[in-house]
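User: quick one, sequence for these tokens?
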């Protein structure tokens, strides 16, 4: 009897799980492929990793690697070397990667070197800012992929303009929004805002972790000062990413701030806070998308976004990197962007992604 095709999913950093889970779960439900989940170890703390496997429809990783911290090159090459060994052992028919983190790039390059077909979830996003490590990861991963799953028409246009054949691209929608919809009721039921002594629609939620902001002590210090000013009129809750925590500690920012700092949160607790916030201040990519779907105003502290649909259709406003601009937030909240939900961000992207994967696999030669 012919064996079922083997699909190996590579994850490694926090935002990967929400994007991969709906695709993994749908392929599992259909039962026509065998699957393995490989974790590179890029994120390794319980709160950045383990906690998500209990909340999302993902098994514990079948293979756990230890690429860990280090420079971008160290992290990527370590994951690449280990993934090559795993792919030689497993001999998968398809490797699936998601997003734009270093583990995504490592998975893509390892698959390409091994001659294995590659599927990229969340293809085609471009900031046109090559100083971002994520931009390099996106472009290289896309060009190595056999199947590019996109979530917006902007992404399709970007890929077409880089000469990627339309046959390789499938516009399936946003799988991360499937995860949001599947967890939204449970998250709202948690009422996580209570733990912070605040009221729904009466606080700002903040997340900052990009090196271009948090690795610059002077800029992060000014951002803290700006957040403190905002917090005088509206409470501010700030779950702190480990990268940001490093600079906070080195600059002694914790002692001086009136902003409510908390360690990173599990998925549903964060979603609960996000859904009921008056507004969100962030430099994350995924949160720009989630707030658009939740109808919550989002203020992005970056010079650009690779997710323009969240600005053109959604609730996102890109404010730039100068923290003093945060003083404008009360005025912006007085006339909030209402936004609309982009096409195919409908909670069913995982099904369309599974269709595309199954279509591709009928083209892959499966050994008897
Ligand atoms: C990575 C991604 C970024 C993504 C983010 C989400 C790349 C290039 N960047 O950034 O796109 O938005 O994840 O979180 O892949 N650390 C811990 N514990 C952990 C993980 C990290 O303490 O579990 C600390 C380490 O000191 C590490 C630093 O955080 O050096 C940064 O981690 P790293 O994986 O290099 O990048 P992120 O900033 O998390």
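Assistant:
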């Amino acid at each position: 009897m012919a064996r079922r095709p083997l699909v190996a999913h590579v994850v490694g950093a926090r935002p990967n799980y929400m994007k991969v889970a709906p695709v993994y779960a749908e392929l599992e439900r259909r039962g026509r492929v065998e699957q393995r989940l490989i974790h590179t170890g890029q994120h390794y703390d319980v709160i950045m990793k383990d906690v998500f496997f209990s909340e999302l429809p993902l098994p514990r990783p079948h293979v756990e690697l230890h690429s860990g911290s280090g420079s971008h090159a160290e992290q990527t090459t370590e994951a690449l070397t280990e993934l090559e060994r795993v792919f030689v052992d497993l001999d998968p028919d398809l490797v699936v990667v998601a997003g734009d983190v270093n583990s995504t790039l490592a998975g893509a390059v390892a698959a390409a070197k091994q001659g294995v077909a590659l599927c990229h979830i969340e293809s085609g996003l471009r900031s046109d800012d090559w100083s971002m490590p994520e931009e390099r990861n996106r472009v290289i991963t896309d060009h190595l992929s056999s199947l590019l799953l996109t979530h917006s028409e902007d992404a399709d246009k970007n890929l077409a303009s880089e000469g990627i054949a339309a046959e390789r691209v499938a516009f399936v929608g946003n799988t991360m929004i499937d995860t949001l919809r599947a967890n939204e009721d449970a998250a709202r039921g948690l009422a996580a805002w209570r733990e912070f002594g605040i009221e729904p629609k009466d606080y700002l939620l903040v997340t900052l972790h990009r090196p271009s902001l948090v690795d610059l002590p002077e800029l992060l210090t000014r951002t803290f000062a700006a957040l403190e000013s905002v917090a005088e009129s509206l409470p501010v809750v700030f779950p702190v990413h480990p990268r940001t925590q490093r600079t906070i500690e080195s600059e002694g920012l914790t002692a001086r701030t009136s902003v409510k700092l908390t360690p990173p949160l599990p998925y549903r607790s964060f979603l609960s806070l996000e859904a009921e916030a008056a507004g969100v201040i962030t430099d994350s990519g995924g949160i720009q998308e989630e707030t658009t779907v939740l109808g919550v105003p989002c203020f992005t502290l970056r010079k650009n976004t690779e997710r323009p649909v969240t600005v053109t259709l959604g609730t996102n406003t890109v404010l730039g990197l100068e923290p003093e601009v945060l003083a404008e937030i009360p005025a912006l909240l007085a006339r909030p962007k209402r936004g609309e939900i982009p096409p195919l961000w409908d909670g069913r992207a995982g099904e369309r992604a599974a269709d595309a994967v199954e279509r591709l696999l009928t083209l892959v030669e499966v050994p008897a």
